[in-house]
Amino acid sequence: MAARPAGVTDPSRQAEPTHPALIGYIFWILGFTGAHRFYFGRPLTGILWFFTGGLLLIGWIVDLFLIPSMADVASRRYAPGRYDYSVAWLLQVFLGIFGIHRFYLGKIISGVVWLLTGGLFGLGYIYDMLTLNEQIEEANTAP
Known about the structure:
By secondary structure, the protein is mainly α. About 70% of the residues lie in helices and about 0% in strands. The protein contains eight helices and no strands.
């Protein structure tokens, strides 16, 4: 058996998903707000779900069956690393107004600002809902 070059992983091994479907189903419970779509890196449809009540709950029910494929796409799209996407997202959704997810990502100064201002008066919370996956990926790929 030939040795693999450094940095090349075994394609037969399944990597741990960055966005597990189970967490997606937890956010699906709040799905009429688009939480699961934001989690899977689909902010535009997340906004649409938020303003239309999950497309009048019909899209929300359809998403029940689409979550496994959304989880696969998100896990291929975002780089794994030191920071866990699910932990950051759970902190964001439930404690984001206090900036706890920012402390988790090592962004202490902005975490304190979020804590003292209620997530920049809610605007920072919204910003983080739209960009958290990219923030985590940036933190995971930083040297």
